[in-house]
Write a structure and sequence with these properties.
Number of helices: 9
Radius of gyration: 18 Å
CATH architecture of the largest domain: 3-Layer(aba) Sandwich
CATH topology of the largest domain: Rossmann fold
Strand content: 5-15%
Oligomer: single chain
CATH class of the largest domain: Alpha Beta
Length: 228
């Protein structure tokens, strides 16, 4: 099978810089679906490479890109660590997408240098908003409420004062752990971890910086320096 290289349109000098994106997934139906959605709904990304094998990706003239979406489970005998580290060494950031949403898979991907580990069950709008956060872009139309004028006396970037427990739970959660895993890592009860995260969301909401969804919470973490 051959890679699909998408021809980029002629550059518009008045347009903002677009993020050059590549996708690696050996499920071709899903690969086509992801490519079509991004091309139609994410104009701030330039999908220049869609590959179904690892060699197709790294041997493409369009590699490296700014960002690569990589499927965690490929049939090829190339570990996720090797794939992520190769992309990072080439200068690309990596988001790992997987239907295998386990603690071990997340920890392997993140330890190798992936910027995020996302479940394939997430809506594509949330996946792309997480990609915008990783790349330092403003969020898409579904999150425009983030940019409404703040109330008098509250700045858009007001940083809530979090307790030590809230900071630890917040940091672990946005790094890819689930709430039960946060509780286990902190050695506290599930309800305690859940309370820490609820308080973090409430404090950001009071600062007029919504964080009710995980993609929004990741953005808050990036803005305030909680992401490593």
């Amino acid at each position: 099978m051959s890679e699909t290289v998408l021809q980029a349109p002629a550059p518009d000098p008045t347009a903002i810089d677009r993020i050059r994106l590549a996708i690696l997934d050996d499920h071709e139906v899903l690969l086509d679906s992801l490519s079509s959605w991004i091309t139609s709904n994410a104009p701030d990304f330039d999908l220049v490479l869609s590959a179904s094998t690892w060699l197709q990706l790294v041997h493409s003239d369009n590699f490296p890109t700014d960002l690569v979406f990589i499927d965690f489970q490929l049939r090829e005998p190339v570990s996720i660590e090797a794939r992520v580290r190769t992309c990072r060494a080439a200068g690309a950031k990596v988001i790992v997408l997987s239907s295998l949403d386990t603690r071990e898979s997340r920890e392997r991907a993140l330890a190798a240098g992936a910027a995020a580990f996302l479940s394939k069950s997430l809506p594509m709008r949330e996946v792309m908003d997480a990609a915008r956060t990783v790349m330092g872009l403003e969020l898409g139309p579904s999150y425009q409420r983030d940019w409404r004028p703040p109330p008098v006396g509250v700045t858009a970037q007001a940083r809530p004062k979090l307790s030590a427990g809230e900071v630890q739970a917040f940091t672990l959660y946005v790094s890819g752990l689930s709430t039960p895993e946060v509780a286990e890592r902190m050695n506290v009860q599930y309800e305690t971890a859940k309370t820490y995260l609820r308080r973090v969301r409430e404090k950001y909401a009071k600062a007029n910086r919504p964080a009710s969804k995980k993609a929004e919470l990741i953005r808050r973490a990036a803005e305030d320096g909680y992401l490593a």
